[in-house]
Prior knowledge:
Blueprint: E1 2-3, E2 10-11, E3 16-19, E4 27-28, E5 32-34, E6 39-42, E7 47-48, H1 60-74, H2 83-96, H3 101-114, E8 130-131
Helix pairs in contact: 1-2, 2-3
Amino acid sequence: MKYQKIKYKYRLYESESRMTDIKGLSISTPFVRLRRDGTMAIRKGYAWNGSNWSIDWKSKTASMYHDAGYQLMRLGMLDKKYREYLDELYRIILLEKGLWKLLADFRYTVLRNFGGTSAKLTGKPENPVFEE
């Protein structure tokens, strides 16, 4: 028997992509792809936990791209110098989705002050497959 322990709230049912300012890199995992032109593509089936410390009102898309970028940093595939940009991308997407600017700015400030531990290098897969 093969199985996974899933710790996430959401699973993507249609692939999504958007342009980012992270250009010149080619990174690929089973669910996240960063193209040289800056496109971040999230494949169907990607799972993420949403916003860790608040309700997910108008933030599911923002948290998905943010979590995908942080996951690449934890795996050592994306340099931590992109952390500030990913936090700003989260804020930009929140505003695009209609979240009030004051609340988007507050969430951004919290990420900048407390999100660093979520970007620490682990180099390990986040949901390993176990066999019995």
